[in-house]
Amino acid sequence: MDADLKPIAIAEIVRTHGLRGEVVANPLTSRIERFEDVRTLLARSTDGELSRLELKAYRFKGAQLLLQFDSIDTIEKAGSLVGTLLCVPQEEVIDLEENEFFAYQLVGCSVATLEGRELGEVVKVLDSTGTPVLVVREGDGREYMIPFAGSICTEVDLPRRRIRVDPPSGLLEL
DSSP for 131-172? Predict the structure, then answer.
């Protein structure tokens, strides 16, 4: 596989479904309609290896996806995919609206309050059913959980890799 490929995760396989090779995946994108236009996905296994999977069919099961791939037709083959991240090449990501960001763009950004207090670096974005949450880690290992809401994250400067926050009283003391 191309070493320069920068895959962006759009779903994670969490378990098998049935006996014929279907899998259940949690979407990592708010734009689930993107599966309508995708045929080939890059699969990043739990050991970091990249391979290609041809999407045969998909359907929704609540907030999750049921996926069927061309080469996966048994529960054993499907089981080997649990934990796999399903990705697209970075150049195939969908266009976002103004003030929308991909989680991967936020990871690595430094975070500071409006008063200039450095809080640390975004190490992860938790995508909950509501507002995404930034996990910000200080140099000493302390972590802050900061909701990625416009009223709190008042400025996102991707070129400078910086986010400014106006946390409500008590948020940073939790």
Answer: S-EEEEE-TTS-EEEEE--TTTEEEEETTTTEEEE-PPTTGG
Residue-wise pLDDT for 47-101, tens only, equals 888 999 999 999 988 888 999 999 999 999 999 999 999 988 877 777 777 877 8
Q: Are 79 and 24 in contact (CB under 8 A)?
A: no
Domain residue ranges of the chain, discontinuous segments joined by +: 7-92, 103-169
Fold of 103-169: SH3 type barrels. (2.30.30)
Handedness of CA 90, 38, 103, 45 (dihedral sign): negative
Distance CA 86, CA 134 (A): 22
Residue 157 vs residues 101, 102, 109: alpha-carbon distances, Å:
11, 13, 9
